[in-house]
Amino acid sequence: MLKNAQMSLYLVKANQQGGGSFTAYTYAGELPSCAFGFNSHGVGFTLNAVPPTKEEVEVGGIGRNFISRDLLEAVSIEHALQCIHLPNISVGHSYNLIDVRKRRLLNVETASKNRISVLEIGSNPFFHANMYMHLEISQANDVNSICRQKRAAEIPKSSQKEILSLLGDTSDENYPIYMQGPTLCTLCTIVFDLDQKTLSLYNGNPKFENVALTFPLT
Predict the structure, then answer these.
(1) Contacts with 192 (C-beta within 8 Å, 6 or more apart), sequence order
(2) SS3 for 29?
(3) DSSP 3-state assignment of 176?
(4) Distance between CA atoms of 23 and 146, rounded to whole angstroms?
(5) Structural element, H or E, at residue 69
(6) Which residue range or ranges hold the Peptidase C45 hydrolase domain (predicted)?
(7) How far is CA 93 from CA 8, 12, 83, 162, 184, in A?
(8) Which of 5, 47, 53, 204 measures 20 to 30 Å from 185, CA to CA?
(9) What is the Cα–Cα distance from 42 to 80, expressed in whole angstroms?
(10) Whose CA is closest to 33, among 6, 78, 65?
């Protein structure tokens, strides 16, 4: 399953009319990007799906893939917030917004009916599975995310090495943080390094620190 999924993934580099470019991790047949991306303006992002209940879905609203595609053209973190905060979205999402130049990191949770919560991430580590953490909303009871969130709270994460170990944790046989099937798989792990201004993509379990690719963010 993992090998088949990885064969349908692409890193797309696009040069835009009028200047600027973006790089995005893209699933075959979908808009870039439903996973992560960054652009030449120093704006990057990663995404987490969050499971709302059925009554939270706005039929006919803007799909989240169109919003994340728009994010790739954001010229600042403020512009990225404008792209996200729309009154007519179909379903919410969790966005980690990164301003490489100003060294800012925001976790933004959105929902239909024009709801949004913005959390600025400072020196304290922050872990976000596929569930709402700070926006009050009716959400599905996702045992997988609850278990991963609980496990992350137990693991030291004061250094990059410890965080990579956390992201590679498999101690919970039923709901590991690093998933290897048969139902769900961790396709890749990335690190935005704001000190080095790089994005590194890790091959396999990140606790082994096997960097496959590194991209400059400036």
Answers:
(1) 38, 44, 46, 98, 100, 198, 199, 217
(2) coil
(3) coil
(4) 31
(5) helix 64-71
(6) 8-207
(7) 23, 22, 13, 27, 19
(8) 53
(9) 11
(10) 65
Three-class SS state of 78: helix
Q: Which residue has the tokens 């993509």?
A: 201
Query: Rounded distance, CA 130 to CA 135, Å?
Result: 13
Asked whether residue 2 carries a pLDDT value surpassing 80, the answer given is no
**Residue type for position 48:** N
| Token pair belonging to 65 | 């893939």
Q: pLDDT confidence of 5, banded at 50, 70, 90?
A: low
Angle at 97 between CA 29 and CA 71, to 5 degrees: 45
Tokens representing 110 are 């959105």
Q: Is 92 buried (19+), middle (13-18) or exposed (0-12) by CB count in 10 A?
A: buried
> Which residue reads 């980690």 in tokens?
96
State how far the Cα of 64 lies from the Cα of 120, in Å rounded to an integer.
22
d(CA 129, CA 94) in angstroms, rounded, equals: 9
**pLDDT the model gives residue 1:** 46
Per residue in 58-74, pLDDT (tens digit) is 999 999 999 999 999 99
